[in-house]
Amino acid sequence: MIRNLSAWHIIVLVLVVLLLFGANRLPGLAKSVGQSMKIFKSEVKDLRDDDKDGPADGTETAATANGTVNRDRRPEEPTEGTTPPKV
C-alpha cells in the first residue's frame, strides 16, 4: 500500500496535515514527536542492556521469585514461605 504512493498523494497528505494542525503548531508538534522518540529509544536501549546483563548480584527478580522462570528448582519442591500444592 505504501509502495503505491505518488507525489500527488504526499502533497495531499501534507495539505491535510497543514489544515488540521495549522502552520503555527507544526514546529511544536514536530519537536514533541522528536522528544518522544528520543525517550522511547533510550528506554528500549535500557531494557536491552538489562536483559543482556541479567542480575549481577545473584538476587532473584520478581519473575524468578514466584517460580515462573526459575528452572533450577523442581516443581515438587515448595518455595520458601508457601505451602506445597494439594494433590
UniProtKB/TrEMBL annotation:
Transmembrane segments: none annotated. Coiled coil: none annotated. It comes from the Bacteria. Residues 44-87 are annotated as: Disordered. It is a single-pass membrane protein. Keywords: Cell membrane, Membrane, Protein transport, Translocation, Transmembrane, Transmembrane helix, Transport. One of its GO terms (biological process) is protein transport by the Tat complex. Its main location: membrane. Residues 44-55 have a biased composition (Basic and acidic residues). Pfam families: TatA_B_E. One of its GO terms (cellular component) is TAT protein transport complex. It is found in: Cell membrane. GO terms for molecular function: protein transmembrane transporter activity. Part of the twin-arginine translocation (Tat) system that transports large folded proteins containing a characteristic twin-arginine motif in their signal peptide across membranes. TatA could form the protein-conducting channel of the Tat system. The Tat system comprises two distinct complexes: a TatABC complex, containing multiple copies of TatA, TatB and TatC subunits, and a separate TatA complex, containing only TatA subunits. Substrates initially bind to the TatABC complex, which probably triggers association of the separate TatA complex to form the active translocon. PANTHER family: SEC-INDEPENDENT PROTEIN TRANSLOCASE PROTEIN TATA. Belongs to the TatA/E family. This is Sec-independent protein translocase protein TatA. It comes from Cellulomonas biazotea.
